[in-house]
Structures are given as structure tokens and as C-alpha cells.
């Protein structure tokens, strides 16, 4: 039996070197306006292993799939509701009912109050195509519908946007999210749902107080960005990661927390964050890999994070390109191992013979 175990262990290690990391479509994909059902569909069609979305609450407690707490960067809200902005000029999602939000037209991201497109080479923000916001219910219906029609598994990485902000309005966005997922019988570790947020204490609340068995991921960044009141400096430490390992299955750090870059975007070296996370069995999914904004060689960037940093997944706006680059890397890696296909078949055959011998004895 010891021989069988050793061979099986060796075989699993070979597979680990070949298997590519997960590819997670950031806000769907970069090819259509972010987070719309159309770009989510495209992200699935591009064979993303998972689609990353964000959810905010409307005034009538509906979960909207939208990245910002306000609407000005991605919609015509200023034209449609000119007198509904707050003193800072922004129109906030939580100030509108779902019926009102349904009237909005969604476009490619622009700098608020200007017509300047944030990513100039992407889908034109001036397009007259009437894209619209989707609710989480619609996104879940899309996920489950595609699963049925294609007989393939699709997954969602759902980011809860700023739970502390929502709590100021006496709303528990996490509780509403969990209730919505439960209505679709999505409650277990094996279900195609992962929840993440920058507010680490909210994840602890979800696990301990709500007793959720869904997979959880902790978003990590720098404290000075004020994404939440969580102390990211602590959660990036070994003690912090060890504490997290009792609550979450993975971390999603800003890529600059894993690799040091120079001013030109070239890689200098890597930090110890990935190895520390792996020490406590935490998966690592850095963000955000954007081909259209990266200054250096994108292929070398993906290869470094894959082969050297050994991340478990990539959150990327161009999932198709990252999949292609990873498959090239995997093919090259297989080429570096002589006769790997014959070796794998041979090992499987040996295990089979040993098991038969063990059974007969």
C-alpha cells in the first residue's frame, strides 16, 4: 500500500505542474460594458472559470450588479434624473428604486461628469445600444440557465460592495445576499458561488453569525486606500493569514502585494505573501490583470505570476487572452518533461497492477 500511495502522490504532483490556474473574468469581460448581462455572457462564452461581479443595494433592497456605489461613471443617470444627485454631484444607487434604475442606459466606463472614456480602446461609450443594469437574480438565472443549456459548470465570484456603507442605512447587504442565494438553493461549499469583500470582519460575520458554508475570499489591498476599516497590514502578516484560514478559502490581493514593480512596470521580485498564504492552505487570486493598461510585456507578466509566484488564479479583464497565454505556458511545461504522456499512462498502469496484487493478497 505504501508503494501505491507514493506513486499516486507523485502522479498528483505531475498533474499540479500541468493544471493551469483559474481564470476569473473581471466584471464579465473588457469587451462590452462592464457587469451587464451581455458581458457576463461573453465572459462565460470565453471559457472563464468564474465571473467576478459586484453587488449594491437599491432603495427598495434589490441587489444590483454594479461596481460603484454611485451611477455616474457607467450610466445616463445625470440626464435622466438631473435633480436626484447629492451635494457632491453624484447619484447613488441606494437613492433609487429598482423601477427607476431599470430606466437607465449603461455604457462603457467614463470619468464622471465628462465624456472621457477610462479605457479608450474598449467598447465605445457613445454607442446607442441600450445596455442596462442587471439584478443579482437575473445574473443567477443566467448562470443556472447556461449551466442547463450547455451542460457545463459556471461560477460566480460575488463582491459585496462596502458593507459598512450599507449599514449606515440600516441595511445588512450580506443578509440579503445570503437570503437571495438560499432562494436558489445556493448554500454549500460545493455550489458555484464564492463571496468576497474588502471588509474582512464582514466575512467573519458571514461565517460565524450566519453560519454560511459558501466559499469566502478576503480582498486585500493597502490601508491608505480606505476600502474598509479592516487592517490589511495585519491580515497580510503570517498571524493575520493564519487567522483568516479559519474563515476563508482564499485571498484576493492587489497584484502589487505579490510582486514588486519598478516605475516602468517591470518586475523586480516577488514578496512572500503567496507562500505565506499557501502555508495556511489559502488560495491566491490577484487582481486585476488588464492587457490594455499594462506597460510591460503582458505575456511575461502572466508567465511570472504563473510559474514563479504560483498563484491559484488570475482576475482579469481579458480572460480569453490569459487562458491562451496559460495554455501556451502549460504546453511548454509539458514539453520540458520528456515523454510525460507515456509516463502518466505507465504510472496509472503500475498503480492498477499494484492494486490488483494487493487485492489478491
TrEMBL record:
The UniProt keyword set, sorted, is: Glycerol metabolism, Hydrolase, Membrane, Signal, Transmembrane, Transmembrane helix
Q: Name one Pfam family in it.
A: GDPD
One GO term under biological process is: lipid metabolic process
User: Which PROSITE patterns does the entry link to?
Assistant: GP_PDE
What's an example of a GO molecular-function annotation for this chain?
Answer: glycerophosphodiester phosphodiesterase activity
Q: InterPro entries from the entry?
A: GP_PDE_dom (IPR030395), PLC-like_Pdiesterase_TIM-brl (IPR017946)
For this protein, what reaction is catalysed? a sn-glycero-3-phosphodiester + H2O = an alcohol + sn-glycerol 3-phosphate + H(+)
So what EC number does this one have? 3.1.4.46
| Ranges annotated as spanning the membrane | 337-355
GP-PDE domain boundaries:
21-326
Q: Which residues form the signal peptide?
A: 1-16
Q: Which family does it belong to?
A: Belongs to the glycerophosphoryl diester phosphodiesterase family.
This chain belongs to the protein called glycerophosphodiester phosphodiesterase
Give the source species. Answer: Adineta ricciae
Amino acid at each position: 500500500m505504501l508503494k501505491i500511495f507514493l506513486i499516486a502522490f507523485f502522479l498528483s504532483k505531475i498533474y499540479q505542474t500541468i493544471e493551469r490556474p483559474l481564470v476569473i473574468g473581471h466584471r464579465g469581460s473588457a469587451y462590452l460594458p462592464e457587469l451587464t448581462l451581455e458581458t457576463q455572457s461573453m465572459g462565460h462564452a470565453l471559457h472563464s472559470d468564474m465571473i467576478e461581479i459586484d453587488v449594491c443595494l437599491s432603495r427598495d433592497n434589490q441587489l444590483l450588479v454594479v461596481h460603484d456605489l454611485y451611477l455616474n461613471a457607467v450610466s445616463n443617470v445625470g440626464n435622466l434624473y438631473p435633480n436626484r444627485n447629492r451635494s457632491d454631484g453624484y447619484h447613488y444607487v441606494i437613492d433609487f428604486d429598482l423601477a427607476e434604475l431599470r430606466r437607465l442606459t449603461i455604457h462603457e466606463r467614463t470619468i464622471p461628469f465628462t465624456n472621457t472614456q477610462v479605457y479608450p480602446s474598449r467598447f465605445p461609450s457613445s454607442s446607442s445600444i441600450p445596455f442596462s443594469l442587471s439584478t443579482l437574480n437575473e445574473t443567477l438565472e443566467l448562470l443556472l440557465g447556461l449551466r442547463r443549456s450547455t451542460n457545463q459548470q459556471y461560477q460566480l465570484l460575488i463582491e459585496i460592495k462596502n458593507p459598512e456603507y450599507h449599514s449606515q442605512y440600516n441595511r445588512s447587504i450580506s443578509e440579503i445576499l445570503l437570503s437571495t442565494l438560499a432562494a436558489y438553493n445556493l448554500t454549500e461549499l460545493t455550489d458555484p458561488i464564492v463571496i468576497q469583500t474588502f471588509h474582512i470582519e464582514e466575512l467573519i460575520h458571514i461565517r460565524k453569525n450566519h453560519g454560511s458554508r459558501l466559499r469566502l475570499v478576503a480582498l486585500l489591498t493597502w490601508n491608505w486606500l480606505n476600502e474598509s476599516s479592516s487592517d490589511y497590514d495585519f491580515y497580510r502578516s503570517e498571524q493575520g493569514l493564519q487567522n483568516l484560514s479559519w474563515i476563508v478559502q482564499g485571498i484576493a490581493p492587489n497584484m502589487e502585494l505579490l510582486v514588486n514593480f519598478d516605475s516602468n512596470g517591470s518586475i523586480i521580485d516577488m514578496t512572500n505573501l503567496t507562500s505565506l498564504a499557501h502555508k495556511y492552505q489559502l488560495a491566491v487570486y490577484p487582481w486585476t490583470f488588464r492587457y490594455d493598461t499594462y506597460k510591460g510585456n503582458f505575456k511575461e507578466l502572466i508567465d511570472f505570476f504563473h510559474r514563479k509566484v504560483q498563484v491559484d488564479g488570475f482576475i482579469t479583464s481579458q480572460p480569453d487572452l490569459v487562458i491562451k497565454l496559460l495554455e501556451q505556458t502549460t504546453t511548454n511545461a509539458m514539453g520540458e518533461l520528456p515523454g510525460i504522456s507515456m509516463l502518466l499512462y505507465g504510472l496509472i498502469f503500475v498503480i492498477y497492477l499494484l492494486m490488483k496484487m494487493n487485492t489478491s493478497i
